[in-house]
Amino acid sequence: MSKSSLYFGIRLAIYTGLALAASVLTKGLVDDTILKNTLGVLQNISAAVFTLSGLWIAIIYPEAIKSYTSNKVQLIKGTVHTKRVESLILGVSTSAFVLLSIVVFTLLKPVLDKTNIFGSYSGYIDYFFLFYFYLINILQIKALLGILINGMLFALELYRKAEDAQRNEDM
Q: How many Å apart are CA 161 and CA 117, to the nearest integer?
């Protein structure tokens, strides 16, 4: 198992633990109106992150797309750029997963609430949906923070390059 896989697993375990704790602590406090409103906001944020990340990859890192289509990963110049593209792709993937989860959540929750398929397990199903609701929120927050951090790092890099160019020009 690689080091990055291990870190990914640890982070996912932490997010799962947070979602479980939140679902247990807020079971009676979250109603369908809160879920519906939050899912609408989450859907909009996911779509925006998905779009912005995809555009950023396509416009700013065209070598990433070339490397993907030609199977030559070395076309992405530098470890920093590779990590940044990896983070953006993870943001796109996470947002796509969140959007898919919202669709599944929106389709299943009303059906399971109105039918008596699981009977005495309805309390557990409510906990599961609440847990899943918190988990996709945490994952989307992580993706959004990744995009924000990438934007700041990119701006700092541009600023540093502009300063270096100015310094070279002054000499």
A: 62
Of the candidates 30, 80, 89, 32, the residue with the CA atom closest to the CA atom of residue 55 = 89
Q: Which one, of 52, 80, 75, lies nearest residue 64 by Cα? A: 75
Q: Which residues make Cβ contacts (< 8 Å) with residue 97, sequence separation at least 6? A: 136, 139
For the whole prediction, is pTM greater than 0.85? no
Tokens 């990896």 belong to which residue? 86
CA–CA gap between residue 103 and residue 97 (Å, rounded): 10
Q: Which two three-digit tokens encode residue 17?
A: 């633990």
pLDDT higher for 171 or 23?
A: 23
List the Cα angle 65/102/46 in 5-degree steps. 40
**CA atoms of 120 and 6, how far apart (whole Å):** 38
> Residue 153 is encoded by which pair of tokens?
């790092």
Sign of CA dihedral 128, 131, 143, 85: negative
Our CA dihedral for 137, 80, 77, 73, rounded to 10 degrees, sits at -50
* pLDDT class of 85 with cuts at 50, 70, 90: confident
